[in-house]
Design brief:
Keywords: Kinase, Transferase. This is Adenylyl-sulfate kinase. Its EC number is 2.7.1.25. By secondary structure, the chain is α/β, with parallel strands linked by helices. It has a single domain (about 20-200), classed as Rossmann fold (3-Layer(aba) Sandwich). Helix content is about 45%, strand content about 15%. It contains eight helices and five strands, in the order H-E-H-E-H-H-E-H-E-H-H-E-H. The chain has helices at about 20-25, 45-55, 65-70, 80-100, 115-125, 140-145, 150-155, 190-200, and strands at about 30-35, 60-65, 105-110, 130-140, 180. The chain has a five-stranded parallel β-sheet, with helices on both faces. Helix 2 (about 45-55) packs across helix 8 and helix 4 runs parallel beside helix 5 (about 115-125). The protein starts with 19 loop residues before the first helix and ends with a helix. Magnesium ion binds near residues 45 and 66.
């Protein structure tokens, strides 16, 4: 573990007595991170939640880290400026990595609009030897705007929300996500099935 970017000095990484492999063997489960990205209302939380439920019913431990929820607690001091969005994602990357390291399937559902931030999350996992599966919940803005379950697009169009992704802030679509789901063309159950099939095919579960 590199401490080159840590602000604190005089800190030393303390490795535990149980290796990740040993933990996975004992718990009969490997950890990984499933990282959802997509516009607001693209279906990240909806599919992530259904996936979490499906995995748990199969006896596989999974835990969801969801954008809005995390902003109530861990990240409540962050807004939606580019810098704060980057810090938001950096913290989530670290937390999801910890969950995955503990042999859990960490499922994150954040807009995570910047490619560079998602790539940093991927690199963090790769460097630690933890699988990272990027899921692009893809819908045209027009469909997301029509769904508008939280009324956010309406507010953004009225100028009441500044820096709203897809309207007044950029969304950089993934170029080669592991999984690409058009949620306007697939049901929630089909989306879960697609992700589950990927995990099985790649021996991740
Ligand atoms: N096939 C589908 N997959 C996912 N969501 C769907 C689908 N069809 C309709 N929906 C609806 O679209 C909406 C998606 O909202 P959801 O909160 O999951 O989006 P989100 O990507 O998490 O947005 P946000 O970034 O604002 O949290 C829900 O109201 C859901 O019921
Ligand atoms: Mg959501």
């Amino acid at each position: 573990m590199s401490s080159s970017t840590a602000t604190s000095t005089n800190i030393t990484w303390h490795a535990g007595d149980v290796s990740r492999n040993e933990r996975a063997q004992l718990l009969k489960q490997k950890g990984l991170t499933i990282w959802f990205t997509g516009l607001s209302a693209s279906g990240k939380s909806t599919v992530a939640s259904a996936l979490e439920q499906h995995l748990l019913h199969k006896g596989i431990n999974a835990y969801r880290l969801d954008g809005d929820n995390i902003r109530f607690g861990l990240n409540k001091n962050l807004g939606f400026s580019p810098e704060d969005r980057t810090e938001n994602i950096r913290r989530i990357s670290e937390v999801s990595k910890l969950f995955a390291d503990s042999s859990t399937i960490a499922i994150t559902s954040f807009i995570s609009p910047y490619r560079s931030d998602r790539d940093s999350a991927r690199k963090l996992h790769q460097d630690a030897g933890i699988p990272f599966v990027e899921v692009f919940a893809d819908v045209p803005v027009s469909v997301a705007e029509e769904r508008d379950p939280k009324g956010l697009y309406k507010k953004a169009r009225a100028g009441e929300i500044k820096e709203f992704t897809g309207i007044s802030a950029p969304y950089e679509a993934p170029e080669s996500p592991e999984i690409h789901i058009r949620t306007d063309q697939k049901s929630i159950a089909e989306a879960v099935e697609q992700i589950f099939a990927y995990l099985v095919a790649n021996q991740l579960i």
